[in-house]
Design brief:
It is built from 3 helices and 2 strands, in the order H-H-E-E-H. The protein is mostly helical and about 80 residues long. Helix 1 packs antiparallel against helix 2 and helix 1 runs parallel beside helix 3.
């Protein structure tokens, strides 16, 4: 899982949102997994990492964060 402070976020291919626009939402999700539905809605509305069913490198990079939020006890 790519750490949220990793500079590689800013080199991943995306179409709409730059990493600086959606990383704060991932931080909120990591801090409070119950925010998952709200963060997911934000990602959908803002087309942060997916647009018209197109998958980008950023799309793949955020998936582990949503999985981790779904199973917070598995996160350690």
């Amino acid at each position: 899982m790519l750490g949220l402070d990793d500079p590689r976020w800013h080199t991943l291919r995306t179409h709409y949102s730059k990493a600086r626009e959606f990383l704060p939402a991932l931080r909120r999700l990591l801090a409070d997994p119950t925010q998952g539905p709200f963060v997911a809605n934000e990602f959908g509305v803002e087309n942060h990492v997916c647009h018209q069913y197109t998958v980008y490198e950023t799309t793949v990079a955020v998936v582990p964060y949503f999985i981790r939020a779904s199973w917070p006890t598995a996160a350690g």
